């Protein structure tokens, strides 16, 4: 056995994807929140002038990258819930007793969770187009894909790390709600962080979603707070850190 | 070579001792049973041998590999069927097996061939593409046993393999386990709190109570140590004379008076009901009731611990 076992990563990824495509209700369920934000905020604030939004950028243009980022966060964090679900059904034991490194297992989960989150994020984009969203520069779409991937990896890693510290789905589900929404509101997804108190602005600056949303705006709308390269770099670092933390914490899980 | 060898193996959770200084050896190719009440430490022991938890103390090897320093080699050598089902219910049987095969690094050819073979063996080929969530308890068990064998392990652990199954399914599951052992030569280590299961399946049985092995032998020997059959007779007439005559008979160990008649402990392994009836006839005593008690592993457990397995389990829960 080696540190990385591609076949095992593939097996875990395949399992996640199969489970995802076979439960359309789950796909729909994770899209309900983002779509409500998109439809109600997007239409309700369509003519509002929010301080901090660059002139000439419509609110819907500003909002869509934020909601896509939120979808990634929301979808990916629930990958952790899937791990606890596997623990509830006993399937986690089947995974843990296999001759596969813990790192491969974590990478398999991240690959699966990231894929399903990517599908969800892309669906939100597609739905945003009839609502009036326009891509400023289609040439930057590959950058968008990279950003989405890094966001997904970051938050799935986060979900795995958290899940390894929990033993039941209920407590975890609750905690996720308490963590997901602050991350969301402190990311500049709905409104510019510049109007928030200084403390909140600092928190926003260590929030990976801030850079994710900013990068998406930079690539899609052409208006961003930070340079695109800085955003991508920050996301790359957060993704690497989260994978490492997830693998380390999960490696210490002994018995189930 | 020994399939499993433990030396002074212990597992403690705080103050609770789940496995206490356990030293046992399981030989290659045998069906080894651990019989004991729930809470006796059987599952904890299996957990350690499967590398899912670390011993507090002591050593153990599985297939010659150390469970602490050679975890991956141990994981490669074993198949496990856990007490609780550990299947992905949203996937089909074939997909569950394919997942397992990939986790164990089988090639595509091996995977296809073995999945087909094993599904045939456990008679699930017809429903291979149905989601496992639609399976009955017995079908799930069979699938899990098949899964435990895909990577051709040296040792197959079965933790309460027939828990919660009806009598008919239990017997069928026994047949599969026997077949795996006969045809593939895999060493089987199973835990159970069902007497008949240990008796029927196992070459050797370890009786486990409170984290200790208190007896270890073939079921036949364990039962023989408890003596022969016990006859419970309801009698009417000259019981005293019959008692005296029975006591003079070489195949009678002892005779005890009861409310309704006598209890006769027999020596040897034959049930002497016709002889007893003849003796009673000759003495002019009428037999109103006959009950034959054969020593079972339950008797063995009772004699060794002073408790029945059910009582021991109830005590363990307190």
Automatic annotation (TrEMBL), chain A:
Single GO term (MF): ABC-type transporter activity
Topology in membrane: Multi-pass membrane protein
Residue intervals passing through the bilayer: 27-50, 62-84, 105-133, 139-162, 174-193, 228-250
Keywords: Membrane, Transmembrane, Transmembrane helix
InterPro entries assigned to the protein according to its UniProt record, in alphabetical order: ABC2_TM, ABC2_TM_bact-type, ABC_2_transport, Nod_factor_ABC_transporter
Primary site of residence: membrane
Domain ABC transmembrane type-2: 25-253
Gene Ontology, cellular component aspect: ATP-binding cassette (ABC) transporter complex
Places the protein is found: Membrane
Protein name per the record: ABC transporter permease subunit
Annotated organism of origin: Halosegnis rubeus
């Amino acid at each position: 056995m080696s540190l990385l076992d591609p076949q095992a990563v593939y097996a875990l990824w395949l399992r996640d994807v199969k489970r995802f495509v076979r439960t359309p209700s789950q796909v729909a369920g994770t899209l309900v929140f983002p779509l409500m934000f998109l439809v109600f905020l997007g239409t309700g604030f369509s003519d509002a002038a929010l301080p901090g939004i660059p002139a000439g950028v419509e609110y819907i243009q500003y909002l869509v990258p934020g909601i896509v980022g939120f979808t990634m966060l929301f979808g990916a964090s629930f990958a952790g819930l899937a791990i606890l679900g596997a623990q509830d059904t006993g399937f986690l034991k089947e995974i843990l007793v296999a001759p596969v490194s813990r790192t491969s297992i974590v990478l398999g989960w991240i690959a699966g969770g990231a894929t399903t989150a990517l599908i969800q994020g892309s669906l939100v984009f597609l739905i945003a187009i009839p609502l009036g969203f326009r891509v400023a520069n289609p040439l930057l779409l590959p950058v968008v894909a990279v950003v989405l991937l890094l966001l997904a990896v970051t938050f799935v890693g986060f979900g795995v790390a958290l899940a390894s510290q929990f033993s039941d789905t209920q407590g975890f589900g609750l905690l996720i709600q308490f963590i997901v929404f602050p991350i969301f509101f402190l990311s500049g997804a709905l409104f510019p962080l510049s109007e928030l108190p200084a403390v909140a602005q600092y928190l926003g600056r260590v929030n990976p979603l801030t850079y994710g949303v900013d990068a998406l705006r930079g690539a899609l709308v052409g208006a961003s707070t930070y340079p695109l390269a800085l955003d991508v770099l920050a996301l790359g670092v957060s993704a690497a850190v989260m994978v490492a933390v997830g693998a380390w914490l999960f490696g210490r899980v002994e018995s189930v | 070579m020994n399939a499993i060898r433990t030396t002074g193996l212990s597992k403690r959770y705080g103050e609770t001792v789940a496995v206490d200084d356990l030293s046992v050896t399981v030989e290659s190719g045998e069906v080894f049973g651990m019989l004991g009440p729930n809470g006796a430490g059987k599952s904890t022991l299996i957990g350690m041998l499967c590398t899912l938890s670390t011993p507090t103390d002591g050593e153990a090897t599985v297939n010659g590999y150390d469970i602490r320093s050679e975890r991956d080699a141990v994981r490669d050598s074993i198949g496990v069927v856990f007490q609780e089902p550990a299947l992905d219910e949203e996937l089909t049987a074939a997909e569950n097996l394919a997942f397992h095969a990939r986790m164990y690094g089988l090639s595509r050819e091996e995977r296809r061939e073995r999945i087909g073979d094993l599904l045939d063996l456990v008679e699930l080929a017809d429903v291979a593409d149905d989601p496992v969530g639609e399976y009955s308890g017995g079908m799930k068990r069979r699938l899990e046993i098949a899964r435990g064998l895909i990577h051709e392990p040296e040792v197959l652990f079965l933790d309460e393999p027939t828990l919660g199954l009806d009598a008919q399914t239990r017997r069928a599951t026994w047949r599969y386990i026997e077949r795996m052992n006969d045809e593939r030569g895999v060493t089987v280590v199973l835990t159970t709190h069902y007497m008949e299961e240990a008796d029927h399946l196992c070459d050797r049985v370890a009786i486990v109570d409170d984290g200790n092995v208190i007896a270890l032998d073939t079921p036949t020997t364990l039962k023989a140590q408890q003596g022969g059959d016990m006859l419970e007779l309801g009698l009417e007439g000259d019981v005293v004379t019959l008692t005296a005559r029975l006591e003079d008979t070489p195949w009678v160990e002892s005779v005890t008076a009861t409310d309704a008649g006598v209890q006769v402990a027999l020596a040897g392994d034959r049930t002497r009901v016709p002889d007893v009836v003849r003796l009673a006839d000759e003495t002019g005593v009428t037999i109103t009731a006959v009950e034959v008690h054969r020593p079972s592993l339950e008797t063995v457990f009772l004699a060794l611990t002073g408790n029945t397995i059910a009582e021991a389990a109830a005590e363990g829960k307190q």
